[in-house]
Amino acid sequence: MKYLISRNGWYYYSRHVPLYLKRFDVREKVRIALNTKCPKTAIKKSVVVNDEVESYWERLAKTNSFHSDQDFKNLVLASKLLGFRYIPSMKLAEAEIKEIISRILFTDKANHNNLVTNALLGKEEPKKLIISKALEKFWEYSKPRLLNKNHDQKRKWKNPRTKAVNNFIKTVGDKNIGELVNLDMLKLRDWWLMRIQNQDMKPETANKDFTHLRGVIKTVSTHEQLDIDIDAIFKDIYLPKGNTNTRLPFENDFIVDKLLNDDKLNGIEEEAKYILYALADTGARPQELLNLDGEKDIILDAPIPYIHIRPRKGYSLKTRVSERRLPLIGYALKAFRKYPKGFIKYQGRSDQFSTYINSFLLEKELRPTLDHTLYSLRHSFQDRLTAKEIPDRIQCQLMGHSFKAKGRMRYGLGASLEHLYSVMKRIRL
């Protein structure tokens, strides 16, 4: 409820300008109507508004600029409050005559108030912002989303968005985002169709690219008050999904007799071998094991040894429900007794480890097909749970998946460590 106030049942965002920012913004406080009487909606809206306000203050400080009620952003906001869409004068000249007349009549009623006139008749042109520069602004506006990600997670989050923008520039050009039209996206769609047909790629890959590009443009448009019609630009560009091939699981006998056989693993880096051991008997994601805090998350001196997969400052999990405690048995217990402080060489470098191990297994002919990868061990773990008819809720708890039983809510804290240990003993390799 921080920065929220209520007046006659309506909620407002209200925040005093910090003292250290007074030289850039002389207002006593910022107050913005959230246009809702619902507390939950108000909280959600206030979080978004607060991000925008803080980004605005940060930009003022960085550029040594000063807040002005007459800047382009406020003209856009004024237009919206008056029930119009801000249109620059050059574009307004191309609008229908009824649109132009309605705006002129409104300014007459307002006695030609300068702010109203400037807002409705488009006195100021929006600044030109090519898409490559928009990406730079996007990183600035996305800082709150990256606070709890480590260096590797930030890189993995940024890479597909950078790639999406670069694909657009390569296909369409480095256009001003305020001038983007649906035809531009259809050109990008055609380019992806050619790649899918000629390079055996999946439609889902193209759709992810479109989603990342859309996210960049929408975020920048919101923060810069460019009023871009995102839905119109991205209309009808998503491709129908193809047949999605999931990774194939390894057979249990194959894992024990070949994949974890020391003779078959001759030449592998020692630490990589033990990571393989840990993955096989925990079902954890590689990133989860390679980001454990050796001092706090690996517990070997307890009656039931276990690892605690959890977020911390500078590192976030894939989902909220990914946090869990996993009892250590079999190969996994052997691995962590060998490396009680965690796997230092590949700490926070899950991509590098996956690349190395998949190449090694391919070279040693330890991948029955190309659809078998390191991640197949997680699928094998899931299959062992299913084969032993472990209840779905406990399966989800061990896998770090969300459990939503049909027709009922989730109750309680889940299975105890002792219960999970008894399950793990039943499925150990």
TrEMBL record:
One Pfam entry name: DUF6538
Superkingdom of the organism of origin: Bacteria
Keywords in alphabetical order: DNA recombination
InterPro entries in the cross-refs: DNA_brk_join_enz (IPR011010), DUF6538 (IPR046668), Integrase-like_cat_sf (IPR013762), Integrase_catalytic (IPR002104)
Domain (Tyr recombinase): residue spans on this chain: 238-425
Protein known as: Tyr recombinase domain-containing protein
UniProt organism field: Flavivirga jejuensis
